């Protein structure tokens, strides 16, 4: 269900371009929340009441600049009516937003909260470099358990960023099952770091997407050897 424009204007008076959507296709409780804005936004208690139960997904499209900062500020605020949103949300999709490293650093401050329950984090094409990846990895080291699916495809993560993620993957408390790093400027050096991490923690990662990277024969081999070894859970490997 899409909130009519006049309702949207009432809900988000600071920005005429911000629209909120709720999808109630299978449940009386909204399971999917969509936000679209290119200016700063505010979300009232009347709307947040409808998304306070566990098991939701949130998708944000075209959130950049001040809007990204506003979303993060709302989620972190001790007084906001949305203070609990990041504790109950299952999927956070910010794909296609120009968050850059500064935005990912702010997001990481939420993810390191030990009560954060985000299981599926999608940051496809968000302008993230190894610097943002390092901040994300630091947050996940602090709170490694909930995340199951991480998509960083189409970001210039590079080998140094992959090494930061590998330090998270080797933690036995990390239960990440799916890692997408397509077109992330990864070479055989990054593959070697991933393989080393999986040898330390072989029980969880089952899908790894490295398509669009120049990993070379050695990169393919070191990871393929793990996929072919029944001691490792890795089932799907995409180059």
TrEMBL record:
Residues 1-39 are annotated as: Disordered. SUPFAM superfamilies: RNI-like. Keywords: Leucine-rich repeat, Repeat. The keyword Heme does not apply. The keyword Repeat applies. Residues 16-26 have a biased composition (Basic and acidic residues). InterPro entries: Leu-rich_rpt, LRR_dom_sf, NLR. This is Uncharacterized protein. The lineage of its organism: Eukaryota, Metazoa, Chordata, Craniata, Vertebrata.
């Amino acid at each position: 269900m899409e909130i009519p424009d006049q309702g949207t204007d009432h809900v988000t008076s600071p920005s005429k371009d911000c629209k909120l959507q709720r999808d109630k296709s299978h449940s009386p409780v909204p399971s999917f929340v969509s936000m679209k804005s290119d200016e700063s936004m505010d979300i009232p208690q009347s709307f947040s009441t409808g998304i306070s139960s566990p098991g939701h997904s949130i998708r944000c499209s075209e959130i950049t600049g001040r809007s990204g900062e506003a979303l993060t500020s709302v989620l972190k605020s001790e007084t906001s009516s949305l203070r609990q949103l990041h504790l109950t949300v299952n999927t956070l999709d910010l794909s296609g937003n120009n968050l850059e490293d500064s935005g990912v650093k702010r997001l990481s401050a939420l993810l390191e909260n030990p009560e954060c329950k985000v299981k599926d984090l999608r940051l496809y094409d968000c302008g993230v470099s190894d610097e943002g990846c390092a901040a994300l990895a630091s947050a996940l080291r602090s709170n490694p358990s909930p995340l199951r699916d991480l998509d960083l495809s189409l970001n210039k993560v590079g080998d140094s960023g992959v090494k930061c993620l590998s330090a998270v993957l080797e933690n036995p408390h990390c239960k990440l099952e799916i890692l997408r790093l397509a077109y992330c400027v990864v070479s055989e050096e990054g593959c070697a770091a991933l393989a080393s991490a999986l040898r330390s923690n072989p029980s969880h990662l089952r899908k790894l997407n490295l398509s669009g990277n120049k990993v070379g024969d050695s990169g393919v081999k070191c990871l393929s050897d793990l996929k072919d070894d029944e001691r490792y859970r890795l089932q799907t490997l995409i180059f």
